[in-house]
Design brief:
Length: 112
């Protein structure tokens, strides 16, 4: 699979990993858009949130449940933002489902 995030999940490409479990991996974004910018991905290749299927129910819940764990590790007690871009109009550049977890300062209210 020629997917950069699959390669990171497989340990074939280095990343600054902050959290890992059976289903998910979280690592620092290579081009941070906030003082703290981490990407949380499922280890399984799922293209985007638009491609989640019933069979992914456990992965989807594990991914969401990993959010507070990652936030606690960073730490981001004062709040953070979770964003998942979907497809071309959503601004998605890597076609492997990921949550951007952004924080470390007060973020602007408006989303680009
Ligand atoms: P998106 O544009 O929503 O698909 O987000 C993709 C994100 O992946 C961007 O914020 C990139 O900076 C980030 N990214 C791309 N390649 C890497 C990499 N090798 N390691 C960490 N983050 C990456």
């Amino acid at each position: 699979m020629d997917c950069i995030f699959c390669k990171i999940a497989a340990g074939q490409i280095p990343a600054k990993v902050v959290y890992e479990d059976e289903f998910c991996l979280a690592f620092h974004d290579i081009a941070p858009q906030a003082p703290v910018h981490v990407l949380l991905i499922p280890k399984k290749h799922i293209v985007s949130a638009a491609n989640l299927a019933e069979e992914d129910a456990e992965i989807a819940s594990r991914l969401l449940l990993a959010v507070p764990k990652v936030a606690k590790l960073l730490p981001l007690e004062e709040g953070f933002r979770v964003v998942s871009n979907v497809g071309e109009n959503g601004g998605q550049t890597v076609p492997h489902l990921h949550f951007h977890i952004l924080g470390g300062s007060k973020l602007s209210a408006v989303m680009a």
